[in-house]
Structures are given as C-alpha cells and as structure tokens.
Amino acid sequence: MKKYFYLFAATGIIIALIIMSGSMINNTVTVETFTLTEKDMDNTVSAAGKLQYSSGKAVKLKTAALINQVYVKNGDTVTEGDALFSYYKIDDAYVTLAQQYAGAEGIESLLGSVSSSGGYDIIEEISKYCELIEMNSEYNGTVTGLSFAEEEFAQKNSTVLKISDKKLPEIPVDINESYIKLIETGQKADITFNALPDKKFTGTVTKISDEASRTGGLTGKETTVEVTLTLDETDDELRVGYSAACTIITSTDRSVLVIPYEAVRTDEKGDYVFVLKNGRAVKKYIKTSDEYKEGIRISSGLKKGDVILKNPDNVYDGQRVVRK
To answer: With a threshold of 0.85, does the pTM exceed it?
Structure first.
C-alpha cells in the first residue's frame, strides 16, 4: 500500500512541476538588452544648405574705370599673375571734367548720360588721356561673379569679379538667432549630401555673418544669421548646388551615461526603465537631463554596468526575462 502511495505522491509532484514550469514559460519573455556605459556625447546644431564655390577674393576697382578688355570668363581657372582684364583709370579730376563735358552732376548721372548717348566721344577721350592698367590675379582659383564687359563703366570700389577656391567648396547655412550664440569659428561639422547618401564629409565653421536677416522657416519667417562651412576635403562626385544636411558640433560632454530613447517609459510618477537583475525585469525610476541625437543623459537612478531592457513593451515589474 505504501508503494502505491509514494508512486501517486511522486506523480503528483511531477505534474505540479510541469504545471509550474508551463506557467513560468508562459510568463517569460525574450528581450533585447544593453549594458550602460559612459560615453562622450556631442551637443549639436543642425542646418541645411547648398554647396557652392568659396565666396572668394573680390577683385575691386580703387577708382572709377572704363573696362577695356576682359580676358577671362566665369568658370575659368587662373593662377597668380594671370591677366584678368584691363581698364582705363578714371581719377576724380577726370570725372569732374567729364561731368562738365556731359553736363551731368555726379558719377551716376555721368554714366547714365554716357549710356543713353552711346558715349562714344567720352570713351574716345578716356582712352586717349587716361592711364591704361592691366589687372592680374593675385590668387590661384576659379573666376566667379564676373560683372562687367568691355567698354562698360564701373564706379569706384566696384567688384569686377571674384577668385574662388574650387578645391575648398563651402556651404552657407542659416542658423536661428536662438542658437547663434553657440556657434564659433573653428567648430567642426558632420555633412551629408542628398545626392551622395553613402558618403560622409566633415567641414569647419569659417565665417559668421555680422548681420541677421529674416528668412523663411518651417513655421514662417524667422530671424537667422548666415554661417559658412568650408569642406575639409573635396570629392570628384560633388557638384555645386547639391543639397547638404549639416550638423555643427558646438561642444562635447565627456564620460556621461546615455540611454536610448526607446528604453525609457513614463507613468504618473515619472520616467523609468527596466533593469535586468537575477533573470527578472526590475522597474527603476530615473532622472534625466540633456538630450542628444542618440539618447538622453541619466543624472540619477542608474549606474555604469547596469543591464537595461532596450524595448520593454509588454514587460511588467518582476517578470522573468531571457536575453536575446
């Protein structure tokens, strides 16, 4: 009789264990985890722009002038010493005489009278009595912004053309006035182009405008300041006019605990995560501070080395979990 009693008891225990095991399996979930480590995190400001040649060195006239010959065109490559154009130097004294001859007052009126009458007599007089000067390039680069043709008058301080560095293209971007105080020359930027999504570029803040302007934004007009980024390297596939997404690195926070946004949940008590301890999901409330592109900074509630559930959907406090 005892033999059957022990047999039934053992059978009961086995059945109970099977039931309990099934219940435990049903209440166990497989989760993805990560170990919390300290990282260096960049604070950034994002903007968009279009690739262009560098704004270049302006070739200006120190006096009023009559353009004689133009030896270059936009897009030409020049080196230091190459001839750009020649012009007749019209000094202030000659402008006064020419104004009397044309019956005009002021250089604008003089140029207007020359334009309306054809100006051939004045042009002939200037070519006889004014000094002819050859303007040569002082830089290596590409001709851009050529603004005058032969036998055209140019006022004092006019920019005839620019010499741009094609090897160092740049991207002007508009930064909202709220963030411009964070931007400084010399800061680095990560740059991607829509036309070259698989390539990454870096740039440097080389210029910050002294003036603000009103530009169109996502929410209408906003006040912005133009910031110029110069590429640190070029590429044969780059084309002027390509659209660029730029992320300027304004500062770096060293050795901080950062958790991905998808690991954080919120209830009426605040933000929390699930920490893996002894095979179970343990709910822990946390305090957060700075936000980054990759996640949010932990100020309290967790420590380096904690194992965190990455996507704790349908997980409850104390539930058994298995790591993937």
So the answer is: no
